[in-house]
Design brief:
The protein has 354 residues and is an alpha/beta fold. Helices cover 31% and strands 18% of the residues. This is Formylmethanofuran dehydrogenase subunit B.
Length: 354
């Protein structure tokens, strides 16, 4: 019987490097639901629709391919096929992560790697659905043993489900004008902790901001960060599932990838979703074909093709700091094809070896 494999997890942008795949194919990742459900992805059953697949194969226009993120091998292929005019690649991103990325590219921001935060930060603010999206982030950042109130010499942690633009503005005002804040209010308490910190980290997770005002709120967070760096260190941190794809696209084209277009009802061009890194099912638009992940049902995908999340490749961690090796565990070496291989099968004109 083969020995357990210790591998890098391909399923979320944290890319934990201590995931164990046992000889029976089960996965151990210290209780991470995302990683430990990976075994079920290799036993998915295809749900084909001949008309849909024929329409995709016969389309004379570039096929829309949307994804939250993929590995290095897949990223190179997607960028090449887009350059060849066969597909149009779009990033399917959470509105909050998209907003902080937009603000960063437009205005700049003070950022940091996960290693810097765990080493230096004495105050961490977590905003959004951090735990559901990146279940082991707090463990890796040693935040599960930190405290949530002021104590000398220990890291303080505060969690918020969501910030509105109004809340962000009031927090900024409290930090800048402490004398004008009502005593014993949350703004007074949190702004005091923030001003007293030597190294503050603001972690932005999915759902951190109200969708219709996400960019406005992200701009205020960036302003809070910039202003704080005039007197102490403050950074903004997030994990981008599309870090690998964005990087490859920038290297190859010197341009930024487009976010997913809104569903305007135009169905003249088929849409294919590639389920890769950091995919979340809530609120997904309906597509013609989904490749990888769990079958979402006919309402969200007219056809479905299974794909293995395990691949011999590389990936850039979501904070953009390190490149990590991906590999197929020995126990899962006979799995279904990878996402990019399935895409090549449904688009015969790609005609390129992987």
């Amino acid at each position: 019987m083969s020995e357990p494999s210790r591998v890098v997890c391909p399923l979320c942008p944290l890319h934990c490097d201590d995931v164990v795949v046992n000889a029976d194919g089960s996965v151990q990742a210290n209780g991470c639901e995302i990683a430990e459900s990976a075994g079920s992805l290799v036993n998915q059953v295809a749900r084909t629709d001949k008309a849909t697949l024929a329409r995709i194969a016969g389309c004379k226009q570039p096929i829309r391919v949307i994804t939250s993120g993929v590995d290095l091998v897949a990223a190179r292929q997607l960028v090449q096929w887009q350059s060849d005019g066969v597909i149009e690649v779009e990033i399917e991103s959470d509105p909050s992560l998209l907003a902080i990325g937009t603000v960063t590219r437009r205005d700049g921001i003070f950022a940091a790697t996960l290693s810097e935060v765990v080493t230096h930060a004495d105050l961490v603010w977590l905003i959004g659905e951090v735990d559901p999206a990146w279940p082991r982030l707090e463990e890796k950042q040693r935040l599960d043993t930190a405290i949530s109130s002021a104590t000398d010499g220990k890291r303080q942690v505060k969690r918020w489900e969501r910030w509105t633009a109004d809340f962000a503005g009031r927090m900024h005002h409290a930090i800048e004008h402490p004398e004008a804040i009502e005593e014993d209010s949350e703004f007074q308490t949190r702004s005091k902790h923030f001003r007293d910190s030597l190294y503050a980290a603001i972690v932005i997770g999915p759902g951190a901001f109200e969708a219709d005002e996400a960019e406005m709120t992200a701009a205020m967070v960036a302003r809070i960060t910039r202003r704080r760096n005039e007197s102490a260190r403050c950074v903004c941190v997030t994990l981008d599932p599309a870090a690998t794809l964005r990087s490859v696209h920038a290297w190859r084209t010197n341009e930024s990838l487009s976010p997913m277009m809104s569903d305007d009802g135009d169905d003249s061009v088929p849409v294919i979703r590639l389920v890769g890194i950091g995919h979340r099912t809530s609120g997904d638009r309906s597509v013609d074909l989904q490749i990888g992940g769990h079958d979402p049902g006919v309402e969200l995908a007219k056809a479905f093709l299974p794909a293995s999340p395990w691949i011999n490749s590389m990936v850039i961690r979501g904070d953009g700091s390190v490149t990590l090796p991906l590999q197929v565990p020995v126990a899962l070496s006979a799995n279904s094809p990878a996402v990019i291989e399935q895409l090549q099968k449904v688009l015969p004109e790609l005609g390129r070896a992987i």
